[in-house]
Predict the structure.
Amino acid sequence: MNEWGITGGHESGIVYLVGAGPGDPGLITRRGYDVLHHADAICVDALVDPVLLADVPEEVERYYVGKHAGFHTLKQEGIQELIIRLAKEGKRVVRLKGGDPFVFGRGGEEALALREAGVPFEIVPGVTAAVAASAYAGIPITQRKMACFAMMLTAHEMPDKDSSCATLPWPEIAKLTGGTIAGYMGVKTLPKVIERLVEGGMNPETPAALIERGTMGGQKVVTSTLMKLAVDGQAAGIKPPALFVIGEVVSLSERINWLNPAPLAGKRVMVTRPARQAMPMVQSLQHLGATVLPAPTIKVAPTYIEASWKRMLSQPDRGGWIIFTSENGVRYFMEGLDKAGQDVRFLGRFKIAAIGSGTRDELASRGLKADFVPSRSTTAVLSEELPAHLEKGQWVIRVRGNLGDTNVEKALAAAGAEVQAQYVYETVTAPLNDLVRAWVHDVAPDIIAFTSGSAYSGFQEQWGEEADSLLRGAKLASVGPFTSRIIRDEGYEVAIEADPYNVTGLVEAIREDCEV
Ligand code: SAH
């Protein structure tokens, strides 16, 4: 057992059956979040928000086991075999399920299979849809003097079919008063459910609601009466996943309803930024109500070129300028410095030039301030403006990745500096994961955001033949003119462009576009 109280490891595996909550990724429990971030393998269902996995390290194995049209996914037995096999390999396996694992989630079956196979497991409950979707719709599922019980049922299979739910006692349920009924998986069968309840004697005027995608960006709520719920729901275009709630408490939603319409509500935004840097952008968009898909198209890996570091460190008394043009540059330079046995004091004899607020924030988080910032955040402007601050023959270290041109180096050398390019990271195409693929096939994105030309090239490489229809089917948003040009040169329209040319500017531009 480690400091998290998380057992398992390489001799004996374990399976955590974890409830991810109903949709809003903030509604996973603390325990669920902790085990997720200590997993060796994760198996996820269709309804789980991909944002939950966005900051799980890349090397953690991911299995998408959601039932999904057009996908070759596993049957229940297959899922059970998979988690048992992974645990027997000694892995800490997280089986992540929507809502609560034991509420219409087949968690019980999985637990029994694990017990039978002798695999240790732990259950991490989650917030179930009946509770969470109602809460986000302003419906207290119980209320003193109004609802003294709450019933969860599934209307998936109706009495005329031979199923376990054939035994649902509809006439008796119809006679219950003073409580709330929450129905899972019941969009299709709702007219039948209503028919049985009314036949059984339930008041047709009982307040009733349908909640689609409760707690998610695209949450839709229809309040009505029992009699009219199916018709009103259909008119509003309610689709699964949706929950129906029947009972007096629904009448409170008019007064308790607290969720403000967010500017990006219902918008599906794909963020192609590398996983490691994507979170602030993902969170800002979520905050504005968007449903965000973190779909990194490129990934950045550190490079450590020994000779280059040796050269830099072999001149201990020499100062000069050091140029950072990206957050990655700062991060991987500092990592390299650490690897070389040095620390932040090394920079004491250098002046720092920086482009972009993200770069400056990354510097600031390490207690460093830029001495020079060009008037516009581009390398071209930096090349023009920095020479005025240089002394003849001064040493300039340009921290960079493998992509992009060498114009800065050339311009500063022409201005008389001794320029050293210090390569500290490289950018490669990220593999496409099934969770992203499933999300996109489910409903295509409304907006695809590119924070660099390389993110766009990575997108093309990742999606191959499917790239074209995705790019034509969505509004494309770009971080600035350089990225826009790369996209436009390939014949696609860029509808949204950031100004200032950074992530904050991009999020703001997306918001403005959606307001029009
Ligand atoms: N284990 C899950 C339920 C899985 S069954 C839980 O505890 O919530 C799937 C059904 O749950 C859907 O058909 C729908 O009825 C309901 N559901 C799940 N997430 C929902 C959401 N965000 N909003 C409304 N209903 C939801």
Residues 22-23, 47, 97-100, 103-105, 128-129, 133, 184-185, 211, 213-216, 240-243 surround S-adenosyl-L-homocysteine (CB under 6 Å). The longest strand covers residues 418-429. Residues 76-88 form the longest helix (13 residues).
